[in-house]
Amino acid sequence: MGTLVGHVAPGFGFLIIGLWHLFNHTKLHLQNPKTYISSPWFPTSKFKYLELLLVVLATTSSISMELFIGPDRHQPFDPDGTIPSNHLHNFEHASISLTFFVYAVFAIILDKIDNKSKSSLTQLLASIAFFQQFLLFHLHSSDHMGPEGQYHLLLQVLIFVSFSTTLFGISMQKSFLISFVRSLSIFFQGLWLMIMGFMLWTPSLISKGCFMNLEEGHKVVRCSDHESLHRAVALVNIMFSWFLILVSIFGVSFYLVCTKFFDGNKVSYFTLGNIEEEEEFEKFNDDVENQKGSLVGNQKSFIHVGKKTFSPVDIER
Question: Where are the transmembrane segments (predicted)?
């Protein structure tokens, strides 16, 4: 995973899954706002398990790349059967992929049985996968110092959001907001992984005063002095904050666009001036109705003779 392709490829996968979930959760909520229940995955019209099978395929490819295709000897062990230090991070990345593989396989199996708890169990497996991802990135064997470490620290924030919202979604399946945030965090995870790949392994994009150095069989970014390191880390923080704003704008804008296509209950907008006019019109109608009622009541106490009207007092006289 410690290459440009090793970050961009899985990042693209997370981005697509996050976008797919964002679209389906928004569509489902807009069409059924009162009966909405979140789903851990979504079938396609032509092939039901396409999403889950793509996860299985992607994770299998990732494990193969980490343990068999990437290493020079096409296997991750030393001649004595032990794991060499420069392959520890390969096993960590493969373990993350394996957890998502288990989630996807059991999601298919659970969907084939008739059980009320299958959705909750699937969500639990997804939350375990995100927790595994968070734990292994937090306790990474690689020396994630400097700019690379800051990228991974901010990635852990996004992973934790995905984990916590997935865990909350088990007991709060009717909450659209939790599903929306989870989908957006998965999308942001993928986007941030892709940014990491380009920013850390493209020499022209490396921060001023920093350089690529070959350590333990893979390249890492190091800075020449403390000032360059401080500047590089600050730039990573600024970039993350900018992308956080952009992703927030994208998420809300995406929801508003979907509202025009899938909202079954159209909302009519009006100004406060129209409200005041309607209230005055209703008051006017009430006054007219009251006046009509009073005129009808008064007519009963008068006797009309020709064009002259006599009250009861006049008749007594």
Answer: 6-23, 49-70, 90-109, 121-139, 151-172, 184-206, 234-258
